[in-house]
Amino acid sequence: MESATDCSQSSPASCPPSGSQSDAASPPETAALSASVGNNATQHSPHPPPPPPPPPPLPSTLEPQQDASRVQDSKFNRTQNSIVGPPPPPPPPPPPLPNFSGCPPPPPPPLPGTQNSVIGPPPPPPLPGFTGNGPPAPPPLPTGPAPLPAPPVGGWSSVYHQARKKPVTPKAPMKPLYWTRIQVQNAAAINESNNENLWEKLDEENPDNLEEFINLFSRQVVRPKRDEKSKDAKAGHKTKTVQVANILDCKRAHNVNIFVTSLRLEIAEIENAVYNFDTSVIDTETLQKIYEIYATNDELEQIKAHIKNNPDIPLGKPEQFLYDLSQIPFFADRVACIMFEIRFSETLHSIETRLNNFKLVCETLMKSKGIKDVFSIILALGNYMNGGNRDRGQADGFGLEILPKLKDVKSSVDGSVTLLHYVVKLYVDKHISMDAVLQDIHNAKLPVPEPQNLERASLVVFDDIAAELKKLYSQTQGIELKVNRVLEDCNKNDSHLEPFKSRMQRFLENAYKSIKEEEEILEICMKRFPETIAFFKWKPKSTNQADICKEFFANWLPFCSDFKDIFMKEIHKRIKADVEKAKEKVKESKSKRTPEVRKKTEPGGLKSKLKSRLNQN
């Protein structure tokens, strides 16, 4: 107190002026000065001073009542004001502690030497950079943790008991039925609701023979026996982190792990698909992927060696999946048989389609009456056009090379009309009945082969098809060996013999028969093609069968394509002309009819009667 008084009575130069740099002293100096003043005041005061006042508000908002309530100890305030001049700008109030809304914070522990004296905390230092133009905005008050959502009506347990029906536990694993479940309200809510539907009053009608139903639609899965040590290792892995054995290559293990994670299937479901040819849960595409990811012999040897030498260390997820697959007896052979059965039908169908189309095209070119009629028109027109020419006139036939060139011979009167147009016109005039076409458009039959059939026939190579059939026969023999190995193992263990045995034996029998039939059709095509070439007296330039085939049909394909377009346009043009003629006939018949003279009827209504009476008066 004495030092404070001396400073107040000294010259102005010795004391820091108001608003000078001393007002913005550093926080440690301000705190030390406040602590010194507080200690002196405590020593001279008979009673403990009250707690420090809150920071003053802004000068612009200060009211007399607030000033009076804020000043509690005049002696202490006068002494402090005489030392530091005007009070420093108030800092932002400290944020309240969570869960103590409205309660002030507890006072700090007393300083050493004060014993029973209670000292309030020193005023907080001003914020750095504060110039006295008003305090900065206080920070937002911290919010507590978000409140928990209110429980639903009836408590949380009611959420899990909304279903009206009791859960059903099948006696055996059943095949899934992928429907969309509908759950109606409880009985009380149904009585209050006016909307009725089928499911509210529909009762379940269970089968009389439940065992029969289970036998028909169960998965019929035989779970493989697992080693007890591997079970213990898996159980320990669930409870605590255990180091697993990573045997596969990093990239290989990564790919297998991704596949297993995306598969989300159990080994039991894979067994069911393999043993029973059941693709309701696992389709053939997924089976093919499982077959492709199957472990190699080296990988299986390493995995089995680890299980034998280190039974306490569990396998990693990829290694465990591959090991479980290997525990299915003859898994690779069974899946190979299933996939080959599907591939065989696709390959055989492709060969059969190509050979039958080639055979049909050759027969059409040789035996079609329409081809003969078209060629007779071309021959007549060509001989007439080449009349008087020693080299080209009086021909009995013509080479097939002229067929695609007919559209290039244009009319001297109309350039849009070609010789091919005229050939089509003559053919329609002589061989197409428009009366029949008007009744049914399908009566306008195209006299030449379809262009797409000719294009497919031009791509046939006999040697390639023969090689495909030979390869298919060899693959069928390989599958037969696998089938025999599986059946031999099933006979020994007396397990999972059917339906594999009956289905694969029936497939092999049909496969050999189908291959033999296609070989016979191939021989017919190889014999029919030279006959077709000789039928038209066409001489190939090449000696290779594939080149001969392309060269021969290269003459027919553009000719038939252009002939079809012109033929259909000619048919539609004539249909339109016939329809117009029919309309003209109808108009002429209507115009020739004598118009009927209708007698004018006298009005007999009430209005006409009133008018007649008025006229009489």
Keywords:
disordered N terminus; Protein cappuccino-like protein; FH2_Formin; Methane Monooxygenase Hydroxylase, Chain G, domain 1; 617 residues; actin filament binding; 55% helix; mainly alpha; FH2_Formin_sf
Furnish the topology, listing elements before pairings:
Elements lengths: L1 H8 L17 H18 L19 H7 L3 H11 L102 H6 L5 H4 L8 H8 L10 H12 L10 H14 L3 H10 L7 H9 L4 H13 L7 H10 L4 H37 L1 H17 L33 H13 L2 H6 L11 H8 L3 H32 L6 H36 L9 H48 L13 H11 L1
Helix pairs in contact: 1-4, 9-13, 11-14, 14-18, 14-19, 14-20, 15-16, 16-21, 18-21, 19-20
Question: What would you note in describing this structure?
Answer:
The chain has 617 residues and is mainly alpha-helical. Among the domains are: 68 residues, no CATH class; 101 residues, Methane Monooxygenase Hydroxylase, Chain G, domain 1 (Up-down Bundle); 130 residues, no CATH class. Helix 14 packs parallel to helix 20. It is flat, with a radius of gyration of 52 Å. The termini are far apart. The relative contact order is 0.06. The N terminus is likely disordered. One of its GO terms (cellular component) is cytoskeleton. GO terms for molecular function: actin filament binding. This is Protein cappuccino-like protein. Pfam families: FH2 (PF02181).
Short description:
By secondary structure, the protein is mainly α.
Q: Provide the succession of SSEs.
A: HHHHHHHHHHHHHHHHHHHHHH
Termini, distance in Å? Answer: 139 Å
- Quaternary status: single chain
Low-confidence stretches: 1-46, 58-85, 97-103, 112-120, 127-134
Tell how many strands the DSSP assignment holds: 0
Structural class: mainly alpha
Radius of gyration: 52 Å
What count of helical segments does DSSP give? Answer: 22
Helix content: 40-55%
Nearest-integer average pLDDT: 74
Quick one: biggest sheet?
Answer: none
Strand content: under 5%
Overall shape: it is flat
